[in-house]
Design goal:
With 472 residues, this protein is of the alpha+beta class. The protein has 3 domains: 157 residues; 81 residues, Signal transduction histidine kinase, dimerisation/phosphotransfer (DHp) domain (Helix Hairpins), CATH 1.10.287.130; 137 residues, 2-Layer Sandwich (Heat Shock Protein 90). The protein has 10 helices and 14 strands. The strands form 3 sheets. Strands 1, 2, 3, 4, 5, 6 and 7 form a 7-stranded antiparallel sheet that branches.
Protein backbone atom coordinates (compact mmCIF):
# COMPACT_ATOMS: atom_id res chain seq x y z
CA UNK A 1 0.00 0.00 0.00
CA UNK A 2 2.79 2.41 0.88
CA UNK A 3 4.53 1.58 -2.38
CA UNK A 4 1.38 2.27 -4.41
CA UNK A 5 0.59 5.62 -2.81
CA UNK A 6 4.26 6.54 -2.67
CA UNK A 7 4.60 6.57 -6.46
CA UNK A 8 4.56 9.76 -8.50
CA UNK A 9 1.76 8.37 -10.64
CA UNK A 10 -0.48 7.72 -7.63
CA UNK A 11 0.23 11.10 -6.08
CA UNK A 12 -0.45 12.86 -9.39
CA UNK A 13 -3.72 10.96 -9.83
CA UNK A 14 -4.86 11.68 -6.28
CA UNK A 15 -3.85 15.31 -6.57
CA UNK A 16 -5.64 15.83 -9.88
CA UNK A 17 -8.75 14.03 -8.62
CA UNK A 18 -8.79 16.08 -5.43
CA UNK A 19 -8.43 19.37 -7.31
CA UNK A 20 -11.19 18.44 -9.76
CA UNK A 21 -13.40 17.29 -6.87
CA UNK A 22 -12.96 20.59 -5.07
CA UNK A 23 -13.67 22.49 -8.30
CA UNK A 24 -16.77 20.39 -9.00
CA UNK A 25 -18.12 20.84 -5.48
CA UNK A 26 -17.55 24.59 -5.67
CA UNK A 27 -19.10 24.83 -9.13
CA UNK A 28 -22.01 22.60 -8.12
CA UNK A 29 -22.71 24.66 -5.03
CA UNK A 30 -22.59 27.84 -7.10
CA UNK A 31 -24.97 26.35 -9.68
CA UNK A 32 -27.41 25.17 -7.03
CA UNK A 33 -27.37 28.50 -5.23
CA UNK A 34 -27.81 30.40 -8.48
CA UNK A 35 -30.60 28.07 -9.64
CA UNK A 36 -32.40 28.30 -6.30
CA UNK A 37 -31.99 32.09 -6.22
CA UNK A 38 -33.41 32.49 -9.72
CA UNK A 39 -36.35 30.20 -9.06
CA UNK A 40 -37.04 31.88 -5.71
CA UNK A 41 -37.02 35.21 -7.51
CA UNK A 42 -39.47 33.87 -10.10
CA UNK A 43 -41.77 32.57 -7.34
CA UNK A 44 -41.52 35.94 -5.60
CA UNK A 45 -42.38 37.79 -8.80
CA UNK A 46 -45.35 35.51 -9.35
CA UNK A 47 -46.54 36.10 -5.78
CA UNK A 48 -46.06 39.84 -6.16
CA UNK A 49 -48.14 39.93 -9.36
CA UNK A 50 -50.96 38.02 -7.64
CA UNK A 51 -50.82 40.34 -4.63
CA UNK A 52 -50.77 43.48 -6.79
CA UNK A 53 -53.86 42.24 -8.63
CA UNK A 54 -55.72 42.05 -5.31
CA UNK A 55 -54.22 45.35 -4.18
CA UNK A 56 -55.55 47.03 -7.33
CA UNK A 57 -59.02 45.75 -6.54
CA UNK A 58 -58.81 47.01 -2.94
CA UNK A 59 -57.49 50.38 -4.05
CA UNK A 60 -60.51 50.65 -6.35
CA UNK A 61 -62.84 50.22 -3.35
CA UNK A 62 -64.04 46.72 -4.21
CA UNK A 63 -65.77 44.96 -1.24
CA UNK A 64 -63.99 42.07 0.45
CA UNK A 65 -66.59 39.50 -0.55
CA UNK A 66 -66.35 40.51 -4.20
CA UNK A 67 -62.58 40.31 -4.52
CA UNK A 68 -61.33 38.12 -7.35
CA UNK A 69 -58.88 35.88 -5.49
CA UNK A 70 -56.75 33.18 -7.13
CA UNK A 71 -57.99 29.89 -5.73
CA UNK A 72 -54.84 28.07 -6.87
CA UNK A 73 -52.54 30.29 -4.78
CA UNK A 74 -52.76 31.23 -1.11
CA UNK A 75 -54.06 34.80 -0.73
CA UNK A 76 -54.79 36.74 2.48
CA UNK A 77 -55.93 40.30 3.12
CA UNK A 78 -54.97 41.51 6.61
CA UNK A 79 -55.93 44.84 8.17
CA UNK A 80 -53.73 47.07 10.28
CA UNK A 81 -54.66 45.11 13.44
CA UNK A 82 -53.49 41.83 11.93
CA UNK A 83 -57.04 40.56 11.44
CA UNK A 84 -57.79 38.46 8.36
CA UNK A 85 -60.50 40.23 6.37
CA UNK A 86 -60.38 38.22 3.15
CA UNK A 87 -58.89 34.92 1.94
CA UNK A 88 -59.15 32.37 -0.84
CA UNK A 89 -62.07 29.93 -0.58
CA UNK A 90 -59.85 26.83 -0.94
CA UNK A 91 -57.26 27.93 1.62
CA UNK A 92 -57.11 25.40 4.49
CA UNK A 93 -53.79 26.16 6.22
CA UNK A 94 -51.06 28.79 5.95
CA UNK A 95 -47.80 29.74 7.68
CA UNK A 96 -45.15 32.37 7.05
CA UNK A 97 -47.50 35.38 6.90
CA UNK A 98 -48.76 37.83 9.52
CA UNK A 99 -51.54 35.46 10.59
CA UNK A 100 -52.27 31.77 10.29
CA UNK A 101 -56.02 32.37 10.08
CA UNK A 102 -57.72 31.06 6.94
CA UNK A 103 -61.30 32.28 7.54
CA UNK A 104 -62.06 36.03 7.41
CA UNK A 105 -63.41 37.71 10.53
CA UNK A 106 -66.80 39.51 10.30
CA UNK A 107 -66.43 43.30 10.07
CA UNK A 108 -68.46 45.55 12.35
CA UNK A 109 -69.87 48.97 11.60
CA UNK A 110 -70.79 48.19 8.04
CA UNK A 111 -67.27 47.96 6.88
CA UNK A 112 -67.32 44.32 6.05
CA UNK A 113 -69.58 41.44 5.14
CA UNK A 114 -72.08 40.26 7.74
CA UNK A 115 -72.54 43.65 9.45
CA UNK A 116 -75.76 43.71 11.57
CA UNK A 117 -77.25 47.08 10.34
CA UNK A 118 -81.04 47.37 9.99
CA UNK A 119 -80.62 49.69 7.01
CA UNK A 120 -81.13 47.75 3.76
CA UNK A 121 -78.40 49.78 2.06
CA UNK A 122 -75.95 48.55 4.62
CA UNK A 123 -76.28 45.00 3.28
CA UNK A 124 -75.81 46.17 -0.25
CA UNK A 125 -72.70 48.17 0.56
CA UNK A 126 -71.16 45.64 3.00
CA UNK A 127 -67.34 45.72 2.89
CA UNK A 128 -67.18 48.51 0.31
CA UNK A 129 -64.82 51.41 0.97
CA UNK A 130 -63.61 54.52 -0.70
CA UNK A 131 -60.86 54.28 -3.34
CA UNK A 132 -57.33 54.17 -1.94
CA UNK A 133 -53.66 54.15 -2.97
CA UNK A 134 -51.22 51.29 -3.50
CA UNK A 135 -48.44 51.43 -0.94
CA UNK A 136 -44.75 50.93 -1.56
CA UNK A 137 -42.29 48.46 -0.04
CA UNK A 138 -43.04 44.83 -0.93
CA UNK A 139 -41.64 42.34 1.57
CA UNK A 140 -41.00 38.65 0.97
CA UNK A 141 -41.08 35.64 3.27
CA UNK A 142 -41.10 31.86 2.99
CA UNK A 143 -43.77 29.57 4.33
CA UNK A 144 -46.24 26.84 3.43
CA UNK A 145 -49.93 26.46 2.77
CA UNK A 146 -52.60 23.80 2.13
CA UNK A 147 -55.06 24.44 -0.69
CA UNK A 148 -57.84 21.99 -1.41
CA UNK A 149 -56.01 19.29 0.53
CA UNK A 150 -52.63 19.77 -1.16
CA UNK A 151 -49.75 21.17 0.91
CA UNK A 152 -46.76 22.94 -0.61
CA UNK A 153 -44.07 25.50 0.15
CA UNK A 154 -44.55 29.06 -1.06
CA UNK A 155 -42.73 32.35 -1.45
CA UNK A 156 -45.02 35.02 -0.01
CA UNK A 157 -45.14 38.65 -1.13
CA UNK A 158 -46.62 41.21 1.28
CA UNK A 159 -47.89 44.31 -0.59
CA UNK A 160 -49.41 47.20 1.42
CA UNK A 161 -52.35 49.34 0.21
CA UNK A 162 -54.17 52.38 1.59
CA UNK A 163 -57.85 51.34 1.17
CA UNK A 164 -59.58 54.63 1.97
CA UNK A 165 -61.91 54.44 4.98
CA UNK A 166 -60.88 50.81 5.54
CA UNK A 167 -57.39 51.96 6.52
CA UNK A 168 -54.09 50.34 5.69
CA UNK A 169 -54.36 46.76 4.44
CA UNK A 170 -51.71 44.22 3.53
CA UNK A 171 -52.19 41.61 0.84
CA UNK A 172 -50.27 38.33 1.19
CA UNK A 173 -49.99 36.16 -1.90
CA UNK A 174 -47.85 33.07 -2.42
CA UNK A 175 -45.89 31.79 -5.38
CA UNK A 176 -45.33 28.04 -5.44
CA UNK A 177 -41.79 26.75 -4.78
CA UNK A 178 -42.50 23.33 -6.28
CA UNK A 179 -40.58 24.22 -9.46
CA UNK A 180 -37.61 25.46 -7.42
CA UNK A 181 -37.54 22.36 -5.24
CA UNK A 182 -37.96 20.05 -8.22
CA UNK A 183 -35.23 21.77 -10.24
CA UNK A 184 -32.82 21.86 -7.29
CA UNK A 185 -33.49 18.21 -6.45
CA UNK A 186 -33.01 17.20 -10.09
CA UNK A 187 -29.76 19.16 -10.36
CA UNK A 188 -28.53 17.71 -7.07
CA UNK A 189 -29.36 14.19 -8.21
CA UNK A 190 -27.51 14.74 -11.49
CA UNK A 191 -24.50 16.07 -9.61
CA UNK A 192 -24.46 13.20 -7.12
CA UNK A 193 -24.50 10.73 -9.99
CA UNK A 194 -22.42 12.62 -12.51
CA UNK A 195 -19.66 13.99 -10.26
CA UNK A 196 -18.40 10.56 -9.10
CA UNK A 197 -18.44 9.34 -12.70
CA UNK A 198 -16.55 12.45 -13.83
CA UNK A 199 -14.03 12.03 -11.01
CA UNK A 200 -13.55 8.42 -12.05
CA UNK A 201 -12.89 9.51 -15.64
CA UNK A 202 -10.44 12.19 -14.44
CA UNK A 203 -8.62 9.70 -12.22
CA UNK A 204 -8.42 7.13 -15.01
CA UNK A 205 -7.20 9.61 -17.62
CA UNK A 206 -4.68 11.09 -15.21
CA UNK A 207 -3.41 7.61 -14.33
CA UNK A 208 -2.98 6.67 -17.99
CA UNK A 209 -1.43 10.01 -19.02
CA UNK A 210 0.95 9.97 -16.07
CA UNK A 211 1.87 6.38 -16.78
CA UNK A 212 2.72 7.24 -20.36
CA UNK A 213 4.59 10.38 -19.33
CA UNK A 214 6.64 8.51 -16.72
CA UNK A 215 7.38 5.50 -18.88
CA UNK A 216 10.68 7.03 -20.12
CA UNK A 217 11.61 7.73 -16.49
CA UNK A 218 11.13 4.06 -15.68
CA UNK A 219 13.33 3.24 -18.68
CA UNK A 220 16.01 5.59 -17.36
CA UNK A 221 15.75 4.05 -13.90
CA UNK A 222 15.98 0.52 -15.26
CA UNK A 223 19.02 1.34 -17.38
CA UNK A 224 20.72 3.09 -14.45
CA UNK A 225 20.07 0.01 -12.31
CA UNK A 226 21.60 -2.18 -15.03
CA UNK A 227 24.63 0.12 -15.28
CA UNK A 228 25.08 -0.02 -11.52
CA UNK A 229 24.86 -3.82 -11.54
CA UNK A 230 27.19 -4.29 -14.50
CA UNK A 231 29.55 -1.36 -13.67
CA UNK A 232 29.63 -0.69 -17.43
CA UNK A 233 29.90 3.07 -17.68
CA UNK A 234 29.93 2.90 -21.49
CA UNK A 235 26.18 2.26 -21.51
CA UNK A 236 23.74 5.15 -21.86
CA UNK A 237 20.12 5.64 -20.86
CA UNK A 238 17.48 5.92 -23.61
CA UNK A 239 16.55 9.45 -24.65
CA UNK A 240 12.84 9.87 -25.55
CA UNK A 241 11.93 11.96 -28.56
CA UNK A 242 9.51 14.14 -26.60
CA UNK A 243 11.86 17.13 -26.18
CA UNK A 244 10.50 17.75 -22.69
CA UNK A 245 11.85 17.68 -19.13
CA UNK A 246 12.22 13.88 -19.22
CA UNK A 247 14.26 14.07 -22.41
CA UNK A 248 16.48 16.75 -20.87
CA UNK A 249 16.86 14.56 -17.79
CA UNK A 250 18.01 11.66 -19.99
CA UNK A 251 20.49 13.90 -21.81
CA UNK A 252 21.87 15.23 -18.53
CA UNK A 253 22.13 11.68 -17.17
CA UNK A 254 24.08 10.59 -20.24
CA UNK A 255 26.38 13.59 -19.89
CA UNK A 256 26.95 12.67 -16.26
CA UNK A 257 27.67 9.07 -17.24
CA UNK A 258 30.13 10.28 -19.90
CA UNK A 259 31.90 12.52 -17.40
CA UNK A 260 31.97 9.69 -14.86
CA UNK A 261 33.33 7.28 -17.47
CA UNK A 262 36.04 9.77 -18.41
CA UNK A 263 36.92 10.30 -14.77
CA UNK A 264 37.09 6.57 -14.03
CA UNK A 265 39.18 5.90 -17.13
CA UNK A 266 41.45 8.78 -16.22
CA UNK A 267 41.81 7.41 -12.72
CA UNK A 268 42.61 3.95 -14.04
CA UNK A 269 45.25 5.36 -16.39
CA UNK A 270 46.60 7.46 -13.55
CA UNK A 271 46.92 4.44 -11.28
CA UNK A 272 48.51 2.38 -14.05
CA UNK A 273 50.96 5.13 -15.03
CA UNK A 274 51.76 5.90 -11.40
CA UNK A 275 52.46 2.25 -10.75
CA UNK A 276 54.72 2.13 -13.80
CA UNK A 277 56.57 5.32 -12.84
CA UNK A 278 57.03 4.19 -9.26
CA UNK A 279 58.18 0.73 -10.28
CA UNK A 280 61.33 1.95 -12.05
CA UNK A 281 62.97 4.00 -9.25
CA UNK A 282 61.88 1.50 -6.59
CA UNK A 283 63.32 -1.40 -8.60
CA UNK A 284 66.55 0.53 -9.27
CA UNK A 285 66.89 1.50 -5.61
CA UNK A 286 66.24 -2.06 -4.48
CA UNK A 287 68.82 -3.43 -6.92
CA UNK A 288 71.45 -1.01 -5.68
CA UNK A 289 70.69 -1.82 -2.05
CA UNK A 290 70.82 -5.58 -2.71
CA UNK A 291 74.17 -5.18 -4.50
CA UNK A 292 75.38 -3.03 -1.63
CA UNK A 293 74.40 -5.71 0.87
CA UNK A 294 76.20 -8.45 -1.09
CA UNK A 295 79.13 -6.33 -2.23
CA UNK A 296 79.51 -3.16 -0.16
CA UNK A 297 82.41 -2.01 -2.27
CA UNK A 298 80.10 -1.86 -5.34
CA UNK A 299 77.38 0.27 -3.64
CA UNK A 300 76.56 3.33 -5.81
CA UNK A 301 75.55 5.84 -3.15
CA UNK A 302 75.14 8.67 -5.64
CA UNK A 303 72.77 6.59 -7.74
CA UNK A 304 70.81 5.49 -4.70
CA UNK A 305 70.44 9.07 -3.53
CA UNK A 306 69.39 10.14 -7.03
CA UNK A 307 66.75 7.41 -7.21
CA UNK A 308 65.51 8.30 -3.74
CA UNK A 309 65.19 11.98 -4.66
CA UNK A 310 63.37 11.07 -7.85
CA UNK A 311 61.05 8.78 -5.91
CA UNK A 312 60.42 11.51 -3.34
CA UNK A 313 59.58 14.06 -6.03
CA UNK A 314 57.23 11.64 -7.78
CA UNK A 315 55.47 10.87 -4.51
CA UNK A 316 55.08 14.61 -3.85
CA UNK A 317 53.61 15.13 -7.33
CA UNK A 318 51.15 12.28 -6.88
CA UNK A 319 50.11 13.60 -3.47
CA UNK A 320 49.51 17.10 -4.89
CA UNK A 321 47.45 15.68 -7.76
CA UNK A 322 45.39 13.67 -5.29
CA UNK A 323 44.67 16.82 -3.27
CA UNK A 324 43.72 18.73 -6.41
CA UNK A 325 41.40 15.95 -7.58
CA UNK A 326 39.79 15.93 -4.14
CA UNK A 327 38.82 19.58 -4.66
CA UNK A 328 41.27 21.23 -2.28
CA UNK A 329 40.55 24.96 -2.16
CA UNK A 330 43.55 27.17 -2.98
CA UNK A 331 42.70 29.76 -0.29
CA UNK A 332 42.51 33.52 -0.71
CA UNK A 333 45.85 34.78 0.62
CA UNK A 334 47.27 37.78 -1.29
CA UNK A 335 50.88 37.72 -2.50
CA UNK A 336 53.15 39.41 -5.03
CA UNK A 337 53.55 37.20 -8.11
CA UNK A 338 56.55 39.25 -9.30
CA UNK A 339 58.41 38.69 -6.05
CA UNK A 340 57.52 35.00 -6.12
CA UNK A 341 58.86 34.72 -9.70
CA UNK A 342 62.18 36.31 -8.72
CA UNK A 343 62.39 33.94 -5.76
CA UNK A 344 61.80 30.84 -7.92
CA UNK A 345 64.36 31.94 -10.55
CA UNK A 346 67.07 32.72 -8.00
CA UNK A 347 70.14 30.53 -8.44
CA UNK A 348 69.16 29.26 -11.89
CA UNK A 349 71.73 29.77 -14.59
CA UNK A 350 70.75 31.21 -17.96
CA UNK A 351 67.41 32.51 -16.61
CA UNK A 352 66.54 36.17 -17.20
CA UNK A 353 63.86 37.65 -14.97
CA UNK A 354 61.75 40.71 -15.78
CA UNK A 355 59.09 40.70 -13.10
CA UNK A 356 56.87 43.63 -12.14
CA UNK A 357 54.97 43.69 -8.88
CA UNK A 358 51.39 42.37 -9.20
CA UNK A 359 49.08 41.06 -6.50
CA UNK A 360 47.21 37.78 -6.90
CA UNK A 361 45.21 35.66 -4.47
CA UNK A 362 45.43 31.95 -3.72
CA UNK A 363 47.97 29.44 -2.52
CA UNK A 364 51.48 30.88 -2.72
CA UNK A 365 53.02 27.42 -2.47
CA UNK A 366 50.97 25.97 -5.32
CA UNK A 367 51.59 28.94 -7.63
CA UNK A 368 55.30 28.72 -6.75
CA UNK A 369 55.15 25.04 -7.75
CA UNK A 370 53.72 26.05 -11.13
CA UNK A 371 56.59 28.48 -11.77
CA UNK A 372 59.12 25.83 -10.68
CA UNK A 373 57.63 23.25 -13.05
CA UNK A 374 57.61 25.70 -15.95
CA UNK A 375 61.23 26.73 -15.30
CA UNK A 376 62.32 23.09 -15.01
CA UNK A 377 60.56 22.22 -18.26
CA UNK A 378 62.13 25.21 -20.05
CA UNK A 379 65.59 24.32 -18.71
CA UNK A 380 65.31 20.78 -20.15
CA UNK A 381 64.43 22.05 -23.63
CA UNK A 382 66.29 25.37 -23.93
CA UNK A 383 69.53 25.64 -25.89
CA UNK A 384 71.02 28.55 -24.01
CA UNK A 385 68.51 30.95 -22.43
CA UNK A 386 65.22 31.04 -20.50
CA UNK A 387 63.20 34.22 -19.89
CA UNK A 388 60.69 34.71 -17.05
CA UNK A 389 58.46 37.79 -17.16
CA UNK A 390 55.59 38.96 -14.97
CA UNK A 391 53.30 41.81 -16.05
CA UNK A 392 49.77 43.00 -15.27
CA UNK A 393 47.26 43.06 -18.16
CA UNK A 394 43.98 44.69 -17.15
CA UNK A 395 42.26 42.37 -14.69
CA UNK A 396 44.89 39.66 -15.17
CA UNK A 397 48.48 39.03 -14.19
CA UNK A 398 50.55 37.17 -16.78
CA UNK A 399 53.64 35.11 -15.93
CA UNK A 400 55.41 34.00 -19.12
CA UNK A 401 58.28 31.47 -19.40
CA UNK A 402 60.02 31.35 -22.79
CA UNK A 403 63.00 29.31 -24.04
CA UNK A 404 65.04 29.18 -27.23
CA UNK A 405 64.61 25.46 -27.84
CA UNK A 406 62.72 23.67 -30.59
CA UNK A 407 59.30 24.57 -29.20
CA UNK A 408 56.17 22.43 -29.07
CA UNK A 409 54.41 21.26 -32.20
CA UNK A 410 50.92 22.70 -32.56
CA UNK A 411 49.39 19.21 -32.54
CA UNK A 412 50.97 18.50 -29.13
CA UNK A 413 50.14 21.81 -27.39
CA UNK A 414 47.18 20.35 -25.52
CA UNK A 415 48.45 16.80 -25.16
CA UNK A 416 51.50 17.86 -23.13
CA UNK A 417 49.16 18.94 -20.28
CA UNK A 418 47.84 15.41 -19.87
CA UNK A 419 49.18 13.35 -16.99
CA UNK A 420 52.19 11.10 -17.61
CA UNK A 421 52.53 12.41 -21.17
CA UNK A 422 56.09 12.99 -22.33
CA UNK A 423 57.07 13.77 -25.89
CA UNK A 424 59.60 11.46 -27.50
CA UNK A 425 62.38 14.02 -27.25
CA UNK A 426 61.79 14.45 -23.53
CA UNK A 427 61.77 10.71 -22.97
CA UNK A 428 65.21 10.42 -24.55
CA UNK A 429 66.72 12.61 -21.86
CA UNK A 430 67.97 10.95 -18.71
CA UNK A 431 66.66 13.78 -16.57
CA UNK A 432 63.20 13.74 -18.10
CA UNK A 433 60.40 13.91 -15.54
CA UNK A 434 57.45 11.61 -15.03
CA UNK A 435 55.14 13.74 -17.16
CA UNK A 436 53.28 15.28 -14.23
CA UNK A 437 54.78 18.78 -14.04
CA UNK A 438 52.71 20.45 -16.74
CA UNK A 439 49.54 18.58 -15.71
CA UNK A 440 49.98 19.84 -12.15
CA UNK A 441 50.69 23.37 -13.41
CA UNK A 442 47.45 23.53 -15.44
CA UNK A 443 45.31 22.03 -12.65
CA UNK A 444 46.64 24.62 -10.19
CA UNK A 445 46.04 27.44 -12.69
CA UNK A 446 42.45 26.35 -13.31
CA UNK A 447 41.70 26.02 -9.58
CA UNK A 448 42.99 29.57 -9.10
CA UNK A 449 40.53 30.84 -11.72
CA UNK A 450 43.23 31.23 -14.37
CA UNK A 451 44.63 29.52 -17.46
CA UNK A 452 47.88 27.98 -18.66
CA UNK A 453 48.60 27.86 -22.39
CA UNK A 454 51.60 27.19 -24.61
CA UNK A 455 52.58 28.92 -27.84
CA UNK A 456 55.65 29.91 -29.81
CA UNK A 457 58.27 32.18 -28.26
CA UNK A 458 59.93 35.04 -30.20
CA UNK A 459 63.20 33.09 -30.10
CA UNK A 460 61.51 30.07 -31.68
CA UNK A 461 61.10 27.94 -28.58
CA UNK A 462 58.11 27.32 -26.33
CA UNK A 463 56.22 30.13 -24.59
CA UNK A 464 54.13 29.15 -21.55
CA UNK A 465 51.75 31.84 -20.27
CA UNK A 466 50.15 31.60 -16.83
CA UNK A 467 47.20 33.99 -16.38
CA UNK A 468 45.78 34.60 -12.91
CA UNK A 469 43.11 37.08 -11.81
CA UNK A 470 44.62 40.23 -10.30
CA UNK A 471 43.69 40.62 -6.63
CA UNK A 472 41.28 43.49 -6.01
Amino acid sequence: MRRIFGSVRSRATLGATFVVAVALVAAGAAVLLSLRSNLMEQAGNEAQRTAQNVVAQLAAGKPYDQLDLDDESPVQVVDADGTLVAAGDELERISGTATEAVKPQPQSGGTGPGAGDDDDDADDDSGRGEAGEIGEGTEFSDGSATIDGESADYRFAAVPVEAGDRGRLTVYAGGSLDAEQSAVNTALTVMLIGFPLLLGVVAGVTWLVTRRALRPVEGIRGEMAAITASEDLARRVPVPGTHDEVARLALTTNETLAALQTSVERQRRFVADASHELRSPIASLRTQLEVGVAHPELLDLDGAVEDTVRLQGLAADLLLLARLDAGERPGDARFDLGALAREQAEGRADVTVEARSAQVAGSRGQVGRVLTNLLDNAARHARSAVTLTVRPEGEWVVAAVADDGDGVAEADRERIFERFVRLDEARSRDDGGAGLGLAIARDVAVRHGGTLTVGRAPAGGALFELRLPQAQ
